[in-house]
Amino acid sequence: MAASTLSVTRTYCAEMGIDQERLDRAFGIVANAVHEGEMQTAVLAVATGSEVVRCQAFGATVVPGAGVESIYMLASISKAITATAVMTLVDDGLIALSAPVARYVPEFGAGGKDAVTVWHLLTHTSGLVDEGIPWESWRRDRVTAAQIVQSVCATRLEHPPGSRFHYYTGGFFVLAEAITRLTGMDYPDYFRQRVFDPAGMADISFNPWQEGKGQRVIPPVGLTDDGTATSAEVIRYFATLNWPGVALFATAPDLVNLGQTLLLDRTAGRSKILSPAAMELMSREQTRGIAKTEGDLVTPVRYGLTWRKGSIDGRYTLPGSADVIEHDGATGTWLWIDPAWDLVFVLLTNQNWAVMDRIQAKALATVYSAWPHSGPRSNRHAR
Question: Fewer Cβ atoms within 10 Å of its own Cβ: the N or the C terminal residue of the chain?
């Protein structure tokens, strides 16, 4: 039977200054959302840099076997993880953020893209636009990752680089291709060596079926809308692409481990994945003064290097410090890291486009209300 809860004792919470009643309330928000049918399953986890405070799964009565070790498709959290891998190359002196992408993938320079830099791709300010990804036709036609890279490289600019924000998924295939060319390693292997293994992410992968873990995957609900395939069939196809911007698969403990590692890389003066300098750069707000334009609506955006800065629609309506880095995914997933509060928050669900303000944001705000200011009274550098 899959485990449903991992947690420290109430005595520990009291000693650390965590308000147990409010923490229970946060987990109750997610439990109630599953009970009311807003999502089939969910795993909520909260941790410090050195201790998992609580990790609890919900929905085993709806999806038998669902538990804390269930594997979820991360969707766009994959972009933030890919950006982290890119930053290891910045640490190694192999990539310059200000360099044209075409320096590393020459064919990308076609179509007037020779001025697009690595920074532009990491901040969604490249001037490239994708109006929705035609993944249903990709699946039907069995499009390969190499073909997608070729398609992105042939795409023409819609706007001058750096002039506006437009969320662009295709660029992460090109960044992954740059990693492969610069390191001589297939990028899934590089991710494993430089990010996953150092963080202790035992179950994360691009293709859990290839690793014999497919039975633990919980497919998202609502991913397909044309009736031609089930969500399970679609994500099996995604897994064949090793899709760096969309389709990493992981457990909640995997993301907790990543969050703890990055948190301590920032605060403890060490370099398990990234140097403190690279962590600070990745976390720094990069898009100040750049807006997202949709028709007549102009919205500010708050991004670091791919990681967001704790805002919804460009507004700081969520709690947390200026040091926050976070990202969500369309499949109902969220990873939130706040070094100043010594907090890692993970919520994985299988509900496509789970309602942010009704569930995720409420649970996060309630966790903050339970958390002592500046983090629990523990040895933050023990991990």
Answer: N
Q: Is residue 378's pLDDT more than 60?
A: no
Please write the tens of the pLDDT for every residue from 149-198: 999 999 999 999 999 999 999 999 999 999 999 999 999 999 999 999 99
Contacts of 136 by beta carbon, 8 Å cutoff, 6+ apart: 224, 226, 228, 229, 234
Q: Which residues constitute the domain of residue 104?
A: 78-196
Rounded Cα distance, 317 and 286, in Å: 19
Question: What CATH number should be reported for the domain holding residue 12?
Answer: 3.40.710.10
SS (H, E, C) 79-135: HHHHHHHHHHHHHCCCCCCCCEHHHCCHHHHHHHCCCCEHHHHHCCCCCCCCCCCCH
Contact between 107 and 146 under an 8 Å Cβ cutoff? The reply is no
**3-class DSSP state of 7:** strand
Q: Are residues 218 and 272 in the same domain?
A: yes
Would you state the pLDDT for residue 110?
95
Instruction: Indicate if 203 and 307 belong to the same structural domain.
Output: yes
> Is 232 part of any domain?
no
3-class DSSP state of 298: strand
Report d(CA 227, CA 325) in Å as an integer: 36
Flag whether 312 is in a domain: yes
Nearest residue to 234 via CA among 348, 150, 331: 331
Domain count, the chain: 2
C-alpha 181/C-alpha 48 separation (Å) is: 36
- Residues with Cβ < 8 Å from 86, sequence gap 6 or more? 95, 118, 122, 175, 178, 179, 305
Question: Is 165 part of a structural domain of the chain?
Answer: yes
The structure tokens listed for 63 are 């999806």
Neighbour-count burial for 217-255, b at 16+ CB within 10 Å, e otherwise? bbbbbebbeeeebebeebbbbbbbbbbbbbbbbbbbbbb
3 state SS of 71: strand
Instruction: Check pLDDT > 50 for residue 292.
Output: yes
Helix/strand/coil for 46: strand
DSSP state of 310: S
Phi and psi torsions of 8, nearest 5°: -80, 175
Count CA atoms within 13 Å of residue 380 on its CB side: 21
